Amino acid sequence: MLSFLSFLLFHALIACAYASPDYHERLLLRPLPQDALLASFNFRSNETAAAYEQQNFRLFPRSLGQILQHAHTKELHLRFSVGRWDAENWGQRPWYGAREGSNGVELWAWIEASSEDEAFARWLALVNNLSGLFCASLNFIDATKTIRPVISFDPEGDHAGTSNLHLLHGILPHEVVCTENLTPFLKLLPCKGKAGISSLLDGHKLFDAAFQTMAIDVRPVCETPGQNCVVEMEQTVDMVLDIARSKRPRDNPIPRPRPIEEIECDTSKSYNAPDTCYPLDKKTEPGWKLTEVFGKPLRGACPLTAAEGPESETLCINAPPERTIEVNTTGHYTKSLSASDTLRCYKLPTGAELDLVLPEQRMTTGLIRGQPHLYAARSINGHGQERGSVQAVIKNPSPTDAVEFAYLESLPWFMKPYLHTLRAHVSTSSEDPLKETYYRPAVDRVRGTHLELRLVIPPASTLILTYDFEKAILRYTEYPPDANRGFDAPPAVIRILGPFQSADRKGLYLRTTPLLLSLPTPDFSMPYNVIILTSTVMALGFGNIFNLLVRRFVGADEVPAAGGLKGLIQGRIQRVKGRFGKA
Amino acid sequence: MSTGGNEERKNPPPETKHSLWLRRAVIASFWAVVAFLGLPVWWKTTAIYRADLPLQDMTAWANGQVCKPIFPIHIAVQAPLLPHDAHHLIHATQQTLNDLSDFPAHQLRLVFAEPPQPANASQQVVADGSGTAELDDTVALAVRLIPVETGATPRSQLQPFLATLDIYYSPSQIPSESSTNSPLATYIAQELHQLYAQERVRLSGLYSNAASQSESLSPELAVQLQRDSARAFKYAPTYHLTFSLFTPTSTPSAWDIEAALRQYMNPILESFSGISNFTIDTQVQLYANFSPSIRQPEYDNDAKAWTIFKEDVGGFINAAEWPLSPSIGRGPTINFALYVPDEAQSPLFVQGSRDNSWLVPQWGGLMILNPQSYQATLTKEALVPAMQVFSTQLSSLLGLPQTPASLPLRISTLIRIHATSLLFSASSTLGALAQVYQKMPTIPVPDPVAKSVDLSLAHLHRACELLRDGRFQDALENARTADGEAEKAFFERSMVGQVYFPDEHKVAVYLPLLGPVAVPLVMAALKEIKSGIAAVKGR
């Protein structure tokens, strides 16, 4: 339990140190079961509110700052994510899910505006500009993908001096997050991936990870309400690497079996022979090095970070005390232990590379993983092209606490839920878990469905939420390329309202996976066929009626001699016949 | 040809008049539906809305037939003389000026102004501008005649921060009533003529748009003017200034830019405030490396300094990595980049010179600063050379002429140049729009375009009148609006859509339906006309 506490404490430690206008960064490494490694990068830079207003940018990136000021955005949260957090194996999410996004791109922002229309116009300006900055299709967040959540999000910053803030939220589940999004992300950092922990970030490894999420959070932070304010930008990258996979060299990435001599075989198997082997689970932690796992060396400290104190220790590893960790560097570094020695932090040398080496080791103790507050899974049921149903299964593992949470769905307009079929069912109690519903129905091609529920789930029970929906038929031009793949429906966002509370204002979140919705897809050559077919039918009908009206009807023997082309051809045929007849 | 069947062929009975006319009526009614219903509906539904534009006016403006801008520059002469003498002097000077003039649109007009303080004002240097305060605001320059006893006379002195030319003369040089030729009048005329030489060249250059230089202009000056105008930004109502600090390492990581800008940049921006608005933003970018295409600096043993090659200066800015994206909002961004080299590679100079600042035409300015000491923060004092360089670069990027020495005079010259070039640019935009309208009958022209054109024309007229009155500042405002509206009309979004919709496309859509329908219609009509003609002939 001690080590679990250390995990909690560590994040609290990062959270409470944001008063001075400076730059902080920290990388937390945490081995996970099944040879996985969680790398949690956190960069935080501040700019005083006065300098920010005057556009004197030092640590805050100018490109982003100008966009935010242009769009009157007071608080911004932007997420790029790939993969799924395996809560069953990996336990509690990093930052309690507060720095995590739904698959693809997720954006929400508090925008200052005097009316809803103005707020929406500024929102469009914001997404268009961000789209250019981050090389992402954020400009596709239009009215149909924008919702205004009610209980799922609260501002993290201090907005005492500003009124008329509008929260807008948009998700692009189909967006493929890749290297072109990482490059602008790194450019926003003062040390630009050239020094400090950001020098470890590499597109090849990051987007090869089993789970990765990049987050940008901008918020105003004030010491006292309305005074000594700074604009704080936090950039976070969380990734779960498969150690064996990322250790493969880049020039030889094909996995190969280990030589049989190195494999420990299960000799109890009947088929065990010198050439057949049932490998036993190795009871050892795999050995790894920073340079191997990230593919790049750690190029010393970023000189902008604090020179001493806990903030200067920018590399931390959360491992059992018995785990051997060697440090390879030519420069001067310091090490400190905390949280019952389960957290080892290093102050990096400036200008010299540093490498951590963890040899393969047989462990007798392990860290206790933090248990998630909730588990959630969501899927589409049903068959056919017309209807379906969505089922969300939410499990409360706590044996004592009932958990209250908000459940937010933002569905595309072509997925039309029947709200009367919404059922929330808990196996262990007959009480209705649904406390509150906020629903804004979709309007075709104008806006999507916004469904927000407040639910309570009793201890040690499972809540099953279902509703039916109808699939709309799209217009010909509304289908994207590769329409047969299906359409992505955004994940549901779950925010835990109680009894657990986060130490700061970030909140506790989890997100389900996105859904793939298959819609009836037409044959795309159809319009041309339709044009030709209807034209033929109409021409046929018209020709018949017209001829009936215009032609003169005479007896069969009264037909005038064929003239024109027909007569000419007939004459020719007769002549040829005649010639053959003579011969 | 006909071989005849085996059976005997009968002729059909003659058609009754009734059925003949019925058939003709049927065919005619079908054609009537096509002509009076089908065609109008088709025409109406496929028509493109084209608002009416005053094409003739627009073309006339573009051809310069409507407005020949003239630049009457009112020059107030303050002389401690009797009105009679003064008028005589002014008359003589004006005469000489008119003889000197080689560009008729540019007219220097002398007017007599009462001297503010007749007694011992000559020795008093007017520093706060009160000397010109009571003058009409159309007066561009004040000439103060100051009688002196000592020193060479006549001599002149231009106030650097006032639009005032002081002429020192000895009282004996006042022309007498009878003389038509006076050395003082000639001197003043020549001084004034010289003062406006560069402005005349630039304005006449705008006028003819060709390189027709007046004879008085030396080839070097012509090249210089050409280069100046190639450097300068196109006029915009708003410019964004971006000051960036780049360093390949992590020091310096901050600069006292706010104070430096306040002290060194704000005064010059204030003097430009009548012409354009400015926004300022600054940034610090660490770990800014050169692009791989340029060679790394090399150590020059003779100069005891690091040098970069002259040919690499063009690629100095690593556009791919340095975040120098234009600012958001209308108007161009002027970039000023201050590069502080690595301490290990300091001092850094451009090969072959100790000059380490240069200007990138229509982009901004760049300077390599080799600080005395490497500290985390660049102080305001360390930024002084950079600020001086940047303010010089800013004035040439904004197209400020280099002579005369007086800043207000140069700025008023710039106002006239901008007003004229905007006038011409708006006119030519309108002309181009008129051409597009005439040459491309398939593009839609919505009403806002017509509205913008009307507005633009109205402002052009107003600007032209104001130029004639010598109210150049107001003329600039109007010309700016006219140009903005003309651009808005020309770049109207909805006008672009239909241009590339080819006629073949329409054929492909219409043919499957119209072909099979049209053939029986046409054939029936032809047949009926043929038989009608035959009947008429046979009668």
Automatic annotation (TrEMBL), chain A:
<dbReference type="GO" id="GO:0042765">
    <property type="term" value="C:GPI-anchor transamidase complex"/>
</dbReference>
<keyword id="KW-0732">Signal</keyword>
<feature type="signal peptide">
    <location>
        <begin position="1"/>
        <end position="19"/>
    </location>
</feature>
<dbReference type="GO" id="GO:0016255">
    <property type="term" value="P:attachment of GPI anchor to protein"/>
</dbReference>
<dbReference type="Pfam" id="PF04113">
    <property type="entry name" value="Gpi16"/>
</dbReference>
<keyword id="KW-0472">Membrane</keyword>
<protein>
    <submittedName>
        <fullName>GPI transamidase component GPI16</fullName>
    </submittedName>
</protein>
<keyword id="KW-1133">Transmembrane helix</keyword>
<feature type="transmembrane region" description="Helical">
    <location>
        <begin position="528"/>
        <end position="550"/>
    </location>
</feature>
<dbReference type="InterPro" id="IPR007245">
    <property type="entry name" value="PIG-T"/>
</dbReference>
<keyword id="KW-0812">Transmembrane</keyword>
Automatic annotation (TrEMBL), chain B:
<dbReference type="Pfam" id="PF10510">
    <property type="entry name" value="PIG-S"/>
</dbReference>
<dbReference type="GO" id="GO:0006506">
    <property type="term" value="P:GPI anchor biosynthetic process"/>
</dbReference>
<dbReference type="GO" id="GO:0042765">
    <property type="term" value="C:GPI-anchor transamidase complex"/>
</dbReference>
<keyword id="KW-0325">Glycoprotein</keyword>
<keyword id="KW-0337">GPI-anchor biosynthesis</keyword>
<keyword id="KW-1133">Transmembrane helix</keyword>
<keyword id="KW-0812">Transmembrane</keyword>
<comment type="pathway">
    <text>Glycolipid biosynthesis; glycosylphosphatidylinositol-anchor biosynthesis.</text>
</comment>
<keyword id="KW-0256">Endoplasmic reticulum</keyword>
<keyword id="KW-0472">Membrane</keyword>
<dbReference type="InterPro" id="IPR019540">
    <property type="entry name" value="PtdIno-glycan_biosynth_class_S"/>
</dbReference>
<comment type="similarity">
    <text>Belongs to the PIGS family.</text>
</comment>
<protein>
    <recommendedName>
        <fullName>GPI transamidase component PIG-S</fullName>
    </recommendedName>
</protein>
<dbReference type="GO" id="GO:0016255">
    <property type="term" value="P:attachment of GPI anchor to protein"/>
</dbReference>
<feature type="transmembrane region" description="Helical">
    <location>
        <begin position="21"/>
        <end position="43"/>
    </location>
</feature>
